[in-house]
Amino acid sequence: MSEEFLYRLQQATPRLWVTPTLIAINLLVWLVMLGDGLSPLSPSGAELLHWGGNRLQETRGQPWRLVSATVLHAGIIHLSFNMWALWDVGRVAERFYGNLQFLLIYVLAGLFGSLASLFFAGRVAVSVGASGAIFGVIGALLAALVSQRQRLPAALAAPLRRSLLVFIGVALLFGLTSGVVDNGAHLGGLAAGFLIALILAERFDWSTYRRQGLWRAVLALALAGLAALGLWRLL
């Protein structure tokens, strides 16, 4: 049953191009930053802010920072961990939701992660990184595990659920103890990815996806836009 399920997923999304493209964009931005003289291990907050980091004082007048911050990283370790996580969960989510829906989840989760950060760490510190978007991808996978548990083979669902929950727990615990991790962005992205994915149509059932995929994606985008506007006004 698992082999048949995986085969149908592969047929529905034969080419995974969004995940490697996102990784390439993050790597390219980091290389350009290095070329400008930024430290490969620990660039300063002022430097990250110059490149588009997210901090309330600046982002209020420059909302584009909500997106630009998601492709910036505070050193090679930060970048490597995020890109490993994106490669690991992104390929699964891209199979589950298809290329364009996966891209929608990633971008919107990154946006909401940045917005959530402005209520917490981003009020006083510069927040950067793709982790809010990556947590959104994890949230989307959890949404599939919750809403489509009858369609997912248990042999695949159980280890996936376990690994996702362990990752979330370890990452949040590290954020609480390290003092340098933006858990606000993580939780904001996680919640956004979960809720958006509940609206979207997975590609487990191709006929259902063809009938409902477009209007559900439009609905998710519209509701996300309204929610983002509401959060922005609260700031």
Note down, in words, how this protein is organized:
The protein is mainly α. The protein has eleven helices and no strands. α7 (99-117) packs across α8, α8 (131-147) runs parallel beside α10 and α10 crosses α11. The longest helix is centred in the C-terminal third of the chain and has 29 residues, at 206-234. It is globular and about 50 Å long. The N and C termini lie far apart (49 Å).
Rg calc = 18 Å
Overall residue-averaged pLDDT value: 94
Major β-sheet profile:
none
Order of helices and strands: HHHHHHHHHHH
Which regions are unreliable across 5 or more consecutive residues at pLDDT < 50? none
Strand content: under 5%
Number of helices: 11
Shape: globular
How many β-strands, per DSSP? 0
First and last CA, distance: 49 Å
Secondary structure category:
mainly alpha
- Helix percent reads over 70%
Can you lay out the helices and strands and say which pair or pack?
Blueprint: H1 2-12, H2 18-35, H3 45-51, H4 56-59, H5 65-68, H6 76-97, H7 99-117, H8 131-147, H9 154-178, H10 183-199, H11 206-234
Based on the model shown, name its key terms.
mainly alpha
Please outline what is shown here.
With 235 residues, the chain is mainly α. It has eleven helices and no strands.
